[in-house]
């Protein structure tokens, strides 16, 4: 991985899971998006699943739903006493810690919706491993946040199946690549410096745009999300080029969702 990409990855701060205590109320547009996600990331057809697999999937859905709605006792039914959860930031939580987190009140008006899809199950004796995708949409007032995770549950069959370990990573779906005239890339080429003196290079090779931290680094291709905003596949960071009033490129902003990270001035 090039230094430029490592820099962007390091700027992408992990976000903790957010839950709501009341039932989601989705607009028709939001419900349509949820249905499209479910179809796009759907798991194996239910008719092809064994009885145990269906049982584990239903347990995962019920557990996630209970936690999201603040039903802490209902959530606890599905996890063992020695349950441990590792979140996308690498933090570890015990069953008691998760219960305390579940019981925290949330701001009035917070509503969330979760869609669980793309299930994959492996059963090995008294152990079962179930991983699935979670698409979470949370609304706080007029603001909507969306995040996606890949979640893994490790079930143990004692008297019945319960989750003993769980972990997840946040995943980022790439946007569609915009149709941009590559001849415009020439206006982005140059050296960009931030307030601490770090210089990034933007270069062009044919019809492609690249970024790198230093001349000796391997360039990383930047793909257009729009005419002035670019991304790296699999990375949530965005690079937006800034123009002055006449339209000349004078700088760029490196940012991640919901927060600006760093401004850089074009120096050459």
- Tell me, what's the shape? elongated
Q: H/E element string?
A: HHHHEEHEEEEEEEEEEEE
Could you tell me the number of beta strands? 14
Into which percentage range does the β-strand content fall? 35-45%
What share of the residues lie within helices? Answer: 10-25%
Broad structural category = alpha+beta
* Helix count, DSSP H or I runs of 4 or more residues: 5
Largest sheet: 8 strands, antiparallel, barrel
Mean pLDDT: 83
**Rg measurement, Å:** 22 Å
Spatial strand sequence of the major β-sheet: 7-8-9-10-11-12-13-14
What's the N-to-C terminus distance? 26 Å
Low-confidence stretches: 9-33
Account of the 3D structure:
By secondary structure, the protein is of the alpha+beta class. Helices cover 20% and strands 42% of the residues. It has five helices and 14 strands. It has helices at 3-11, 28-40, 51-68, 72-76, 95-102, and strands at 79-86, 92-94, 110-124, 127-140, 143-157, 161-171, 190-193, 199-205, 208-212, 220-224, 229-231, 238-243, 249-256, 259-266. The chain has an eight-stranded antiparallel β-barrel. Strands 2-1-6-5-4-3 form a six-stranded mixed beta sheet, with helices on both faces. A hairpin with a 5-residue loop joins strand 7 (190-193) and strand 8. The longest helix has 18 residues, at 51-68. The protein is elongated and about 70 Å long. The two termini are 26 Å apart. The model is unreliable at 9-33 (pLDDT under 50).
